């Protein structure tokens, strides 16, 4: 027991590792002693490192506005939706046209955390920008439709129940990919939703 305390003290004082790393090292030691060497250890609870509780760093309203103003085009709209609605990034990226209700100021989040659907608010301040964006998005959809490439992926095998639903406007992703791609499951060429890792402010489609 003493050698374990000495080692953990070394990690904390000389190596200055955080509490989480100290506890990880202790877990490994306990596994070695008890699980491999079959040596019981007592008084372990007294040497677990306590993780310090710190206040989060929160931006002021002015700082938030400056940050959002610095993000342009579609990325800016996505950022404002994230901030104003409380949605997660992938929830915004996967939104479809039918998920937005301008009359009720609601956004339906489908298969969110815990695979559950929920409804969140749509900020009034974003309605004009989102409506304007959807006008441009419709132009891209109609262009894809003219080329016979307007079909989108439908969840839960809905394409079997409603074969033409994937070509309808209401099922289109609000934030589409800039490129058409081949669906590996069906070999159909279509437009998926935007890549969540896309950090570029430029967008080939103009959306």
Fold and architecture overview:
It is elongated, with a radius of gyration of 25 Å. It has 207 residues and is mostly helical. Helix 1 (2-13) packs antiparallel against helix 2. The strands form two sheets. Strands 1-2-3 form a three-stranded antiparallel sheet, with no helix packed on it. It has a two-stranded antiparallel ribbon with strand order 4-5. It has seven helices and five strands. Residues 199-206 have low confidence and may be disordered. It folds into two domains: 2-47, no CATH class; 61-190, Intergrase catalytic core (hpI Integrase, Chain A, Orthogonal Bundle), CATH 1.10.443. The N and C termini lie far apart (62 Å).
What descriptors fit this protein?
207 residues, 39% helix, 2 domains, mainly alpha, hpI Integrase, Chain A
CATH architecture of the largest domain: Orthogonal Bundle
Provide a count of the helices. Answer: 7
Percent of sequence in beta strands: 5-15%
Number of domains: 2
Q: How would you classify the helix and strand content by structural class?
A: mainly alpha
Main sheet characteristics: 3 strands, antiparallel
Q: How many β-strand runs? A: 5
User: Per the principal axes of the C-alpha atoms, what is the gross shape?
Assistant: elongated
Estimate the helix proportion, in percent. Answer: 25-40%
Rg computed from alpha carbons, rounded to a whole number of angstroms: 25 Å
CATH level-4 homologous superfamily of the largest domain: Intergrase catalytic core
Placed side by side, the strands forming the largest sheet appear as: 1-2-3
Overall mean pLDDT stands at: 86
Give the termini distance in whole angstroms.
62 Å
Low-confidence stretches: 199-206
Secondary-structure element order, N to C: HHHHHEEEHHEE
Just give the CATH class of the largest domain: Mainly Alpha
CATH topology term of the largest domain: hpI Integrase, Chain A
